[in-house]
Amino acid sequence: MAEFEPKVIAFVCNWCTYTGADLTGTSRIKHASNVRIIRLPCTGRIDFMLLMKAFAKGADGIIVSGCHPNDCHYTSGNFHARRRWIVYRSLLNFMGVDIRRIIFSWVSAAEGAKWAEVVNTAVNEFRALGPYDEYKNLAPIRANWRTEHAG
Amino acid sequence: MQDKIRQKARELLSSGAVKVVIGYGEGTGSRVRALFIQRPEDADRLIMDERCVQNLAVYLTKHEVRAIGKPAIVAKMPVIRSINQLAYEEQFNEGDIAVIGISDSDELVDLPDLTSVREYAAKNPLLLTAEERAELDKLETMTREERWNYWLEELSNCIKCYACRASCPMCYCPRCTVEVNQPQWISVPAHEIGNVEWHIMRAMHLAGRCVNCGECTRACPVKIPLRLLNQRIIADIAVNFGQSEDYALAAFNPNDKEDFIR
């Protein structure tokens, strides 16, 4: 059997990490291809429900990344986001959600190499953790759910 | 105590200072219900005893209550905190409500304006009791898998009645995320995934706003220990951001910890 390849969703901010990831590409640095990037205006815009949805839809790991403190395009979006993550991580851990599967980082527009490193480390860690069936199996598969329960 | 509340209510209503007094009264059986007293002669129906624990602040944002006119509200400590938070969120302005404050030692507290409410709330910081801490610690000592199974077990009882939301003074949004279906944020059936999502969302939307009145847990018909989630966040906010008058998640400190960020 082929080795398990984790499905990774990255929620990144438009101004730093997305541009940084762009630089990774233009610098022709290779990184694991498991990651699907979702670009949002700011880390402050990354609603915690987006992360829950990613897990429910089958993500095995999540990367959340944005501008370094003091570099936010909107001045303080990342500071607000950081506070929210502190509370959110603790709440998820308290509820028994595997918080090792959510990786937070700051990657600036100039850190193309750092982005590749963040992705590679994250993917290796998620691969070692295995599929996150515990969470995604809670979700009823919509097509089946209709045929089984709606008669 | 009861007599003082009745007298105060009578004064407020007969002077025309308020249109309605929100307080506690006898319900059916030995239960207590919320009363909306609009005539001075009805003030004697108000009661105050150890059964009167409901957080009445939930009614302050209801349009049916607002339609009556300026309310006065019988407010013990959790209600005073709720009023303070609602005022912070600009749900009402100075002069929109009157408060019949009751201290923890069962004395009437004079709270003539919202500034005095804020000062009184600041003097009595929101802290978890030793028993509440112990309950959190008990869960913290479990392994992650045990906690996950514990919550799945508890949340599997959830019937999505949203009584926790209806009873919460802070859940006043005219349109809750749970009712949004484009996109569908919370799975609708009372199924595990939707239950987990709903309770994470409820706790997160109350982060920094919850006053730990325990109304959600009392309202829950299937006895889910909802308060634990809110108390976990209250404890985290106190540890990480310190006690502050501000809504913790609307503020920030450039030096907030970031040991978990790479």
Secondary structure elements and pairings:
The complex is a heterodimer of chains A (151) and B (262).
Chain A: E1 8-13, H1 17-26, E2 35-40, H2 48-56, E3 61-66, H3 77-95, E4 102-106, H4 112-129, H5 133-136, H6 142-149
Parallel strand pairs in A: 1-2, 1-3, 3-4
Helix pairs in contact in A: 1-4
Chain B: H1 2-14, E1 20-26, E2 32-37, H2 63-68, E3 71-75, H3 77-88, E4 98-102, E5 108-111, H4 114-123, H5 130-140, H6 144-155, H7 163-166, H8 192-205, H9 215-219, H10 227-241
Parallel strand pairs in B: 1-3, 3-4
Antiparallel strand pairs in B: 1-2, 4-5
Structure description:
The complex is a heterodimer of chains A (151) and B (262). Chain A is α/β, with parallel strands linked by helices. Chain A has a single domain (8-149), classed as Rossmann fold (3-Layer(aba) Sandwich). Helices cover 45% and strands 15% of the residues of chain A. Chain A has 6 helices and 4 strands, in the order βαβαβαβααα. Chain A has helices spanning 17-26, 48-56, 77-95, 112-129, 133-136, 142-149; strands at 8-13, 35-40, 61-66, 102-106. The longest helix of chain A has 19 residues, at 77-95. The N and C termini of chain A lie far apart (37 Å). With 262 residues, chain B is α/β, with parallel strands linked by helices. Chain B has 2 domains: 2-123, no CATH class; 130-250, no CATH class. Chain B has 10 helices and 5 strands; from the N terminus they run αββαβαββααααααα. A 5-stranded mixed β-sheet of chain B has the order 2-1-3-4-5. In chain B, β4 (98-102) and β5 (108-111) form a beta hairpin. In chain B, α3 crosses α4 (114-123) and α5 crosses α10. The longest helix of chain B has 15 residues, at 227-241. Chain B is globular and about 60 Å long. The mean pLDDT of chain B is 91. Classes of the chains: A alpha/beta (151), B alpha/beta (262). Chain A binds chain B through residues 48-49, 52-53, 56, 69-70, 76, 79-80, 82-98, 103-106, 118, 121, 134, 138-140, and chain B through 136, 139-140, 144-152, 177, 185, 187, 189, 191-193, 196-197, 199-201, 203-204, 207-208, 228-229, 232-233, 236-237, 240-241, 248-254, 256-258, 260-262.
